[in-house]
Amino acid sequence: MKARVYVTLKPSVFDPQGRVVADALTSLGYGDVKDVRQGKFFDVELEGGDAPTARQRVTEMADKLLANPVIESYRVEIL
Amino acid sequence: MKARVYVTLKPSVFDPQGRVVADALTSLGYGDVKDVRQGKFFDVELEGGDAPTARQRVTEMADKLLANPVIESYRVEIL
Amino acid sequence: MDNAVIDQAVLDRHGIKPDEYDKIRELIGREPNLLELGLFSVMWSEHCSYKSSRLHLKTLPTTGRRVVQGPGENAGAVDIGDGMCAVFKIESHNHPSFIEPYQGAATGVGGIIRDIFTMGARPIALLNALRFGSLETPLARRIFEGVVAGVGGYGNSIGIPTIGGEIYFDASYAGNPLVNVLCLGLAHKDDIIKGAAHGEGNPVFYVGAKTGRDGIHGATMASAEFDEKSAEKRPAVQVGDPFMEKLLMEACLEVMRTGAVLGIQDMGAAGLTCATSEMSSRGGTGMDVEVTRVPQRETGMIPYEIMLSESQERMLLVVDKGRERDVQEVFEKWDLHAEQIGTVTTSGRVRLFEHGVLVAEVPTKALTDEGPLYRRPMSEPSWQREVQKLPFDAIGASAAPQVAFMTLLASPVIASKRWAYQQYDHTVGTNTIARPGTAAGVTRIKGSSRGLAVSVDCNGRFCYLDPYRGAMLAVAESSRNVACVGAEPIGGTNNLNFGNPERPEIMWQLGESIRGIGDACRALDIPITGGNVSLYNETEGEAIYPTPVVGVVGLLDDATRTVTRQFRTDGASVVLLGDNLGELGGSEYLALMHETVAGPAPALDLSREQALQRLVIRIIRDGLIESAHDCAEGGLAVTLAESCFDTAFGVSADVKTATGAPAAFAINATLFGESASRIVVSVRDEHLNTVLASAHSAKVPATVIGKVGGDRITIAVDGARPIDVVKSDAEREWATSIEKKMSRPETRGK
Amino acid sequence: MKFAVVVFPGSNSDRDAWHAASQVLGEQAELVWHKDTALSGADAVILPGGFAYGDYLRTGAIARFSPIMAAVSRFAERGGPVIGICNGFQVLLEAGLLPGAMVRNRGIKFVSRHVHVRVEHSDTPFTAACRPNEVLELPIAHGEGNYFADPSTMTELDANRQVIFRYVTPTTSRSRDGDPGEGGDISDAANPNGSLNNIAGICNRARNVVGLMPHPERACELALGSADGRVVLQSMVKTFTERLTHHG
Ligand SMILES: Nc1ncnc2c1ncn2[C@@H]1O[C@H](COP(=O)(O)OP(=O)(O)O)[C@@H](O)[C@H]1O
Ligand SMILES: [Mg+2]
After folding, report:
1. Mean pLDDT computed over C457-471
2. What are the CA-CA distances from residue C349 to residues C280, C362, C507, D223 (Å)?
3. Exposed, middle or buried: residue D188 (CB in 10 Å: 0-12, 13-18, 19+)?
4. What is the pLDDT of residue D246?
5. Helix, strand, or coil here: C525?
6. Nearest alpha-carbon partner for D4 in D32, D26, D34
7. How many of the other CB atoms lie within 10 Å of CB of C248?
8. Dist CA D162 CA D212 (whole Å)
9. Are C69 and C57 in contact (CB under 8 A)?
């Protein structure tokens, strides 16, 4: 079973990495770049199990460890 | 126009971040975690333009800046 | 794989010459199989066997009353009193840093840190010597950006302060950046442990990161039968895991204290192959290894891949039989698992087994000692004498001194390197006495009054103009920098970065440089305890400047009795120790203002150099001077300016015209000439006569050339005032030049 | 008094804190392994700087699960003084012992240099010995020191006077010698990492838990360039001894 957890900074949180990338792109001549936000994802491979259990367990992992609710939100996807 | 660029380490490039997360999850009691790989993504927002041009431009950006061809591969998706 | 035919193509891919192959067959008395060929190819590689440089390295002075460990071990060690040793070595990671700047530099730092704690020493400081192409090119900026981030990313995380280094930018490094990292460690003399395998039947343990296909040399892997097996999944790029290294470092230092570890070695270049053969060779023993016991990160790895992998953060230990548990416990405390992969034998051979089946058997000495040794032909380049001429009449009009002054301050070679070192944690450990950018790195030793000073130096331009003298100048400068903080030089290390040694003129540069290092170290009484050689640094036949980076370690009896380049007292006298000869050969002034790299390298009289260094050490210990700064790139004018920077003071000086250059260039030669053996010190009035008297009795020329104070930098030459600027303007040029250049857009594209 | 310095596997300033407390201040200090479950009678707890678990994920994210952290929380709940320095601050945030979170530095680079911070309130166990608005010169060394909290949390922090240190411009007069050292002003230029409102350190509502990014423990001896950090540790001692005299 394989699941992917997408973690993104909440819209209200300033994203320094995204900003730096956006600036770099603009100065590289991509004037049409309005905004860039950087996120991360985790591909979690699980021993056996079915989709629902996997989703439930991985959601738990995201709550506990993978994302920080103060600044981040996440989405779980079963691959 | 909004595009997302997924950047992942090439398959056999060592991923210390994933390794540490996997270890942490295991010691948190998720013994069924076999492996974790970490990746990142960039949400690029473009001024106007149509899907094909957006894809072509963002692919260009990925080649030039967003991905490191030596150890990473990427995939562009139009949102 | 035994029946794999070893034809010319296979030999070529393994970089093994026909005569070398004959020698292999002679040594093992039969045809090697592919795995055995692989073992020889990495152990007999230039990197591991030093086949081109060894005969020359033998000529270096490696002994001295303080030397506890010379070349041959993972690092050198010198006695610093109180039963303690300074353990240090320098390593290069040049090519990997070109391929992937961040990871290349990071893993370079990781490698040298392992060399130090492998000796039983706790790493306490890092320095680095970096070379890049011109900062005007995007490629150089990208590599510079990545390398600095990588050096910081690894060292910061482990918590070893980076306390110094040097950075040059020159077109000759455009395709071959240099990343040399020096690590300094501290050990009790009796705790020093060697990388040797002793005692038949003792278990051999593997600990650390799992083994992947990282770093297996592409060429040696390209053999047909592997291609189907594992096509795309073989990156040469190693990725560093500083957290794993931190665990390894703490665990290894702790496990060594149990006394259960008889020998230990890191798996660096040539990985498991190098560690198993070197350890048994040093112990005069042998080793049996079951390769399938080696923890693997990837599936389907064959013995060839396991033995040649250069995965990072791995150690090999020989444990006292019966004490396995003690060792396991310590590693488990650090969440590490030590796996027994073999045992020490008396066979004098490395024997590899796959599921109990013997797959390779080679005499250890054949791999480590019987490797090829080349006395490669050397010949002075045809152009050498030519570039030593300085055609003043053909380089255009002498530049306006003040313009040249401001331009020099903004030159990346001279400008403040804070953009880089502010990315390095230099305060962790609470031992760093001198902040980067103010002097040689100075670290105190807790529990004693002592301190250690370290500097790494090399002016590649001088070495290009004259490899022999250039190398001597590198030793002199490194040692001088250490003396300028009041430390007595007690040991040295070196990193020889050169082009392709199969070209006689490159080999000549290498030979001359080693001769220069040897002569200078003998004269200045600095034993060389180790080092590293990096050859083939060239692209499309264009070699880098010969760059023998020299690292010198110095001892301070009282770590608080030290000074920096910074003036400290308003109205103090500025004194020049040494002669201002006005030599412009190979100067930054010529390169910058006249696009000329030519002329004789500055003269060097080693006995005068030594007198100068001994003098400055003494007057610093006696608390007689406020600051000391040696004259290097940019000459006297830049040294005076740098003595004002990061202080509240300006300076006004008046010097005599130097006679080293034709009249038209006299003033610039006086201000910007790069003669060796000069130090600018500042002295409070009450000590001035004592200092001048000590200089006189030490036969060191000493001239009062000015006073500290005001908010301008004013330098007069025989009354005329070629330089008169507001200090803060000059300082801004110097301080911000590199960050201005680095704030330009980047791409990954080369 | 007795300091407990928690040692996570990737701590790298643990010995620095231990040295400052025991060798410089001459107090008792003990290194406590993160797998331990008790603080063995400590009067104050220091969570030191470093990269507790490599911190490739989020700084401090994994450390909060270490066995010792339960003991640290209990100690804090009972009003025991806890200070988190740099990585220790990040751990306190992840553990929820302090509000807010850390984001990557504004410039995305690791920043290692000396900064100036103004002591906003001296009514915490870690600033009790400071003069009002005293400005301290302390080293920073971090890549993720960009403090963030949502607007409501920010209002609370101000309402409850929980912002303890702010990055300010250097003072003309060095802070420790006599002069109160005013002139340290909040400005964007003085902000090394983009922290909201130049926040360098905060405390909890009960004021016994403090976190800050700069390293006072690395600035306790003039030989190291600044001894301004000593007052932070001295504050702990002061608070402790005063408690004794009150209760004793
Ligand atoms: N330029 C040099 N001068 C003196 N000793 C050197 C030099 N280059 C290498 N050596 C010595 O040769 C030995 C092998 O070097 P190396 O293969 O780099 O060791 P390691 O594999 O531990 O890095 C070391 O003891 C090193 O100090
Ligand atoms: Mg090594």
Report:
1. 98
2. 8, 5, 34, 54
3. exposed
4. 73
5. coil
6. D32
7. 27
8. 12
9. no
pLDDT at D17 over 50: yes
The CA distance from C548 to C494, in Å, is 7
Closest CA to D3 of D49, D47, D64, D52: D47
Structure tokens at D152: 């409501």
Smallest Cα–Cα separation from C626: which of C676, C678, C561, C721? C561
What is the length of chain A?
79
C502 alpha carbon, distance to own chain's centre: 23
CB under 8 A, 24+ apart: contacts of D19-23: D19/C430, D19/C446, D19/D217, D20/C430, D20/D216, D20/D217, D20/D218, D20/D220, D20/D229, D20/D230, D20/D233, D21/D46, D21/D217, D21/D233, D23/C446
Ligand 1 pocket: which residues have CB below 6 Å?
C 48, 57, 60, 71-74, 89, 91, 115, 268-269, 494, 496, 528, 530-533
Residue C188: other Cβ atoms inside 10 A: 12
- Look at ligand 1, atom 13, and give the residue with the nearest C-alpha: C72
Count how many residues are written for chain B.
79
Write the residue with the smallest CA distance to atom 7 of ligand 1.
Answer: C531
CA angle C633–C636–C640, rounded 5-degree value: 105
Residues 6+ apart with CB under 8 A from A32: B46, B47, B48, B49, B57
Maximum CA extent, chain D: 51
* Position C4 confidence tier, pLDDT thresholds 50, 70, 90: low
ipTM of the complex in this document? 0.92
Distance from residue C530's CA to the centre of ligand 1 (Å) = 5
How far apart are alpha carbons A79 and A44 in whole angstroms?
10
SS3 C406: helix
pTM: 0.94
CA distance B43 to B78: 10
- Where do we find the tokens 């301008």? C712
Beta strands C702-708 and C573-577 are antiparallel
Give the residue from C663, C681, C696, C671 showing the smallest Cα distance to C627.
C681
Contact C425, C414 (CB under 8 A): no
Query: C616-646: b or e for each residue (b if 16 or more CB lie within 10 Å)?
Result: bbebbbeebbbbbbbbbbbbbbbbbbbbbbb
Sort out which chain A residues have CB atoms less than 8 A from B47's CB and list them: 31-34
Chain C residues with a Cβ under 8 Å from any Cβ in chain A: 744-747
Q: Is beta strand C286-290 parallel, antiparallel or unpaired with respect to C349-354?
A: parallel
> Choosing from D120, D134, D144, D217, which is the catalytic residue?
D217
Q: pLDDT tens digits for C186-202?
A: 999 999 998 999 999 99
pLDDT band at C746 (very low <50, low <70, confident <90, very high): low
Tally of helices (H runs) and strands (E runs) in chain D: 5, 11
In this structure, the dihedral spanned by the alpha carbons of residues C18, C23, C25 and C26, taken in order and rounded to 10 degrees, is: 140
Report pLDDT for B49. 80
Please tell me the total number of residues recorded for chain D in this structure: 248
Q: Is A33's Cβ below 8 Å from some Cβ in B?
A: yes
Tokens of C313: 């953060």
Closest ligand 1 atom to C62 CA: 4
Q: Do A65 and D62 touch (CB under 8 A)?
A: yes
Question: Who contacts C272 (Cβ-Cβ below 8 Å, separation ≥6)?
Answer: C206, C211, C289, C294, C306, C307, C308, C309, C314, C316
pLDDT average, residue stretch C554-574: 97
Instruction: With CA atoms as reference, report the closest residue to C442 among C161, C631, C681.
Output: C161
Distance from the Cα of D102 to chain C's closest Cα (Å) equals 17
**What separation, in Å, do the N-terminal and C-terminal C-alpha atoms of chain A show?**
8
Q: Chains C, D: CB contacts under 8 A, how many?
A: 90
Nearest CA to ligand 1 atom 14: C72
- Using CA atoms, how far apart are residues D157 and D196, in angstroms rounded to an integer? 12
